[in-house]
Design brief:
The chain has 13 helices and twelve strands. It is α/β, with parallel strands linked by helices.
Length: 405
Amino acid sequence: MDALTRRKFLIASGVVGAGALAAGATAYTLADILGTAGDGDRPADAGTLVVVTLYGGNDGLNTVVPYADQAYQDARPDIAYDAGEVLRLDDSTGLNPALKGFHRLFTERRLAVVRGVGYPKPDRSHFRSMDIWQTADPVRPGTTGWLGRWLDTAGGDPRLAVSFEPALPPLLAGATSAGAAVPTNARRGAKGVTGLGRPAAGEPALQARAARCFADLDSIEAMITEVRDAQPADPDADEGDDPATGTGGRAELGAQLDLVAQCVEAGVATRAFSVSLGGFDTHADEKQLQEILLAQLDKAVTGFVDRMAGRPVTVAVYSEFGRRVRANASDGTDHGTASNVFVLGSGVRGGLHGEQPSLTDLDDGDLKYTVDFRDVYAGLLTDVLATDPQRVLGGWTGKLALTGS
């Protein structure tokens, strides 16, 4: 198979993006990342940031539940949680019953719950709002992500910022550099694909790298399969179920985080990882579906945090928006605004942060944000990635300290 055909196949398969091959910055293999272990460039105490994106707009009010607020109970009588169902954080707030691991981490002061996170003039479009969150620009989201701009300041080596998602998210795109997109699954058994991993004599370096990328897929897929097989099956799930939707995200969060853990344990140079979980666009029959998704999040993230205990690894979990306060007629919720951000790890300042938005003083039926998301980013940039947030966030001066002593 010639190099051009292989390139088209790789793009069509979602192995690497067209932009990755064109720019030459993102077609990397797991071996490339593990190859940075022990190279001496990473300080021993350097922090690692793992960003978990929940695609679809997770319902924050049924995740961090203001169960004692009568306005909450009145707004969603058929899908609200009462005091006996939630995992209590204090006398008015509790976690969704599916978040048992998060609740334990909260009691151990390894979970920070930031309430009311949003941005001015919120947008209810999945894709526009996700662009805003990933670029950190509520006014005019451009083509660079906030971690991509951090990468620009950190020297631009793509291996410092790695995505285990199907394509490089805007989050990791910088002005002069871009993170590394590492593929984690392949189209198995496709006729004639074995030759895709063999570089052709005299082909350009970027195409040779793409070939190596494909060649590495079998070993990565084996890791994914091993992790998946080790997890007990969900007896209520239909074979082939995949909660990811057209709004983006992946299904195998635990497998993605297992790869992150292997990289951290190997001592790679990577400082920022991006992983995702999809399926949170819960317009109908929300309660059961969200509990299933939150249970997946809870198991994957809690296991990862426990595995990373004692290491300077911080996990941040966010979604592009929350949902409207009032439930709809289909026992679901529609696109809303402000929601919660979770920050987890051994060095986290655990507890409740930020003010719970009012459920009666609303903006056209939506919550008014009380914490600007750039304050969260500034804290992570300062305390985890040890960089000046103003250089990355366009001079933004706010900061929410969520990690450190």
